[in-house]
Amino acid sequence: MTNPHRTHKRVTIADVAREAGLSPTTVSHSLNGIGQVDPRTRQHVKDVAARLKYRPSVRAQRLRTGKSHAIALLSSMPAAVSAGESQLGFFTELAMGLARKALLSGYVLVLAPPMDQCDPLALMDIDGAILLEPAPDDPIARELEERGVPCVTVGGEPGPDNIDLQHAAAADLLLRHLLDSGARRPGLILGASGRASQRSFHERYLAMAGARGFAPAVGLAAEEEGEAGGQRAAARLLAEHPGLDALCVPIDTFASGALRAIGEAGLRVPGDLLLATRHDGVRARTCQPPLTAVDLHLDAVSHAAVQRLLRMLGHETQDAPLGLPAPALVARRSTGA
C-alpha cells in the first residue's frame, strides 16, 4: 500500500546539472532565463529538468538571488472609479491579464488596490511595479522612484517605459460615433485628476467641437466621489446646457452615474440622449441599456506591460510589438446600435 505521507527526495539543480552534463550555473541560467546561454543548451536543460520532474524552490531562489519574484499592480485612482462597488472595474480586469503573463514568466502579481489607510509599498517586497494611469506628480510614482523600484506605467505620459492606451484614438472613436449616430451637440464629463486619458479626451473633444461647429459643454467630477460624482456632474451639465443630445463619459463609473441623472431628468437613452464610455468592461456591458464603449485590448496591454518590466529587471525576453492593436468601437444600445 502506498503511504500517502511518504516524502520523496527533492530533485535539485545539482541533479539536473549532473544528468545534463553541465555546470549548475549553466543549468540555473538556463532555467531562469538569464545570462548568455545557447538556445539549444537552454532547451536541453529544460528537457532534462522536465524528465527529472525538477521543481524550483521559490524560497531558495529568493534567498540566493535577493529577489522576491513578485511584481505589483498599483494605482492612485480611488477604488470608487478603478474598481467600483462590484470590485470588477478597469483595475481588476487589467490585473487578470497581468497575473497570467507574470506567472508564465516566473513571477507572482501582488494586487495593491488604492488605500488611504496605509502605504502599500511599505508592506510589500517586490522587484518591480506596473502603475496604472498615474496622475500628474503621482505620489506612488514618486515613491517608487525614491525606493529605486523599476516601474512601467500603463496609460501614463508618453515615454519608453509607458504602455500606450491610445487615449486620443479612443476619444476620436467615441466622439465620431456619437456625431455619426445623429448627435449635434455632445457634452463631455471628465475626472478632475488631470490624468493623461482625461486630458486627451478634453483636447480631442475641443478639436472636434471646432471642426464640427458645436459649442463645448464640459463637466468635471472628483474621482473619489465615484458613481455619485458622475451623477451630480451629469445633472449639472444637463441643467446648464439643455440642448445637449449626447454625453461622452470616458470613466465608466461616471457613465453609470450619468445614466441615472439622465433618467432623473425625464430623458431616455438612446431616445432623447446618446451615451458612451471608454472602457468596455463589466459596467458598460451590464448597464441598462448597455453602453457603447471601446475595446482597449487589455490582454495585449497586459502582455506588453509585463514584457517591458521583465526587460527592465534584466531578463532576456523580446519586447512586445511596438504597435498594440488599435482601440475598437463596441457599439451598443446606448447609442442606438
CATH level-3 fold name of the largest domain: Rossmann fold
- Compute the separation of the termini in Å: 66 Å
Encode the helix/strand succession as letters. Answer: HHHHEHHEEHEEHEHEHEHEHEHE
How many E-type strands?
Answer: 11
Query: Helical content, roughly?
Result: 40-55%
**Assigned CATH class of the largest domain:** Alpha Beta
Going across the biggest sheet, name each strand in turn: 7-6-8-9-10-11
Radius of gyration: 24 Å
* Number of continuous helical runs: 13
The largest sheet is: 6 strands, mixed
Q: Per the principal axes of the C-alpha atoms, what is the gross shape?
A: elongated
Architecture per CATH nomenclature, i.e. the level-2 architecture of the largest domain? 3-Layer(aba) Sandwich
> At the fourth CATH level, what is the homologous superfamily of the largest domain?
Response regulator
Number of separate structural domains:
3
Oligomer: single chain
Could you please describe the fold and organization of this structure?
It holds the Pfam family Peripla_BP_3. This is DNA-binding LacI/PurR family transcriptional regulator. Residues 11-65 form the HTH lacI-type domain. Keywords: DNA-binding, Repressor, Transcription, Transcription regulation. InterPro entries: HTH_LacI (IPR000843), LacI/GalR-like_sensor (IPR046335), Lambda_DNA-bd_dom_sf (IPR010982), Peripla_BP_I (IPR028082). With 337 residues, the protein is α/β, with parallel strands linked by helices. The protein has three domains: 13-56, lambda repressor-like DNA-binding domains (434 Repressor (Amino-terminal Domain)), CATH 1.10.260.40; 70-164 and 297-312, Rossmann fold; 167-296 and 328-335, Response regulator (Rossmann fold, 3-Layer(aba) Sandwich), CATH 3.40.50. Helix content is 43%, strand content 14%. The protein has 13 helices and eleven strands. It has helices at 13-20, 24-32, 39-52, 58-65, 79-82, 90-104, 139-147, 167-180, 196-212, 226-240, 252-264, 282-286, 298-312, and strands at 70-74, 108-111, 128-132, 151-154, 162-163, 186-191, 218-221, 246-249, 274-279, 292-295, 328-330. The chain has a six-stranded mixed beta sheet with strand order 7-6-8-9-10-11, with helices on both faces. Helix 12 (282-286) links the parallel strand 9 and strand 10. The longest helix has 17 residues, at 196-212. The protein is elongated and about 80 Å long. The termini are far apart.
